[in-house]
Amino acid sequence: MEKRDLFGSRLGVLLALAGSAVGLGNLWRFPYLVGSNGGAMFIILYLFFVFIICLPLMFTEFVIGRRSHANVFGAFRSLSSDKKSLWSKIGFISVLCSFTILSFYSVVGGWTIDYLVRSCMFQFHVNSDYSEMFNLSTQVAWRPLLFTAIFLILTGLVVRMGVKDGIEKFTKVMMPILFLMVILVAIRSVTLPGAGEGLRFLFKPDFSKLTATTVLSAMGQAFFSLSIGCGTIITYASYVNKSENIMKTSSYTALMDLGFALLAGMAIMPAVFAFGQSPTEGPGLVFIIIPQIFAQIPFGSILAILFFFILFFAAITSSISLLEVVVAYLIEEFEMVRRKAVFISFTAVCVVAILCSLSLGPLQEFKIAGFAIFDFLDKLSANILLPAGGLLFVLFAGWRMPDQDYINELTNEGTLPVNRFLLKAVRFIVKYVAPIIILLILITGFVI
Ligand code: PFF
What we know:
Blueprint: H1 10-21, H2 24-36, H3 40-68, H4 72-79, H5 91-120, H6 130-139, H7 142-160, H8 163-190, H9 196-203, H10 212-225, H11 232-237, H12 246-274, H13 285-294, H14 300-333, H15 338-358, E1 367-368, E2 371-372, H16 373-400, H17 403-410, H18 420-447
Antiparallel strand pairs: 1-2
Helix pairs in contact: 1-8, 1-12, 1-14, 2-10, 2-12, 3-4, 3-10, 3-12, 3-16, 3-18, 4-5, 5-7, 5-14, 5-15, 5-16, 6-13, 7-8, 7-14, 7-15, 8-12, 8-14, 9-12, 10-16, 13-14, 14-15, 16-18
The structure holds 4-fluoro-L-phenylalanine.
């Protein structure tokens, strides 16, 4: 079997994890959810879930991955005391979940390439019809298929190069550039005349917006944005050496993801308000409203290129992590060489991605449980598979893994000076708080 790769540096690990976390979830999903869930109130809830539930979950995925040094399926098998029990097989759900997310994520990834090309060809004009443009990019069959295929090929090429030479090198260069670019766009946006209202919307909480739906979407978004629940962190952590400080690396990753989401909010919301647009536009916010705004401001065409460049690269660093979950599984469980594993998973994802993309156009009428395939897979993974995966992870780590093993992995066998109260709090959340709250999301996910 192929020799297991390891990340080459601490910064490499951090930026690969941040690359997985920072993605369409921050730039595409977060702004429109903030917009349609009452602004700052949503952000406060989101902060709560990121730090109280998701961060301990991230520690947990890290513990499972690094302790086992195996792909997500092998990880649970090797940490289970009974190799025949159902617990030893739960990693399969994660492989399935990553596959499912990748299938629709790559379709949106394709749109980002399409819009990047459009911006490079200076197609955004004051009087263009942006809804029509969006329809053309998402519904006219050949176009989204072509760009989705390009997106998946690029993802596959990086994953094929391996962890250290592909994933680590790529994310190490891309992530700092992304941060710089989003800061630039945010500065332009907040200095537009009339931007103040957008900032107020982002940072002044309206407590009357506190509803069950807002709470649930804030939780779901925290899972999605931090890439929790489908084994990407377990897989990346399995390539991390034993001296890495899990709590520190996870906390930095969460902070970077949060910082990026807020910067994305500051890049988008003030501009939306400055041009009298509606923040509740939904999934089309980024693709319909943003180009329209860029067409009207000085240096807008350059900013549009920057913006879609950010969107594309943020998406691809996340899709790389999703593909790696599937590829690592194939390599280790079926003794494949990496090249073959990438080819097989790429082909399988392509098939489902094609169906997803067509479901927004020619296959619109074909429904599963009342949803088009794209929406069905989106809902299935965000509302059910991710929380279910997260729930199984905390139940496994909380109740099947001895307390001492968990703490030892977290503290590098007791060599790191970690506050004992903090360790107890993390363990308490993993055992009791997180399972109850996640179960709540799951149940509501079924009901809504
Ligand atoms: N965190 C990514 C984003 O915010 O776009 C999406 C994602 C990647 C979700 C990897 C889940 C995952 F395992």
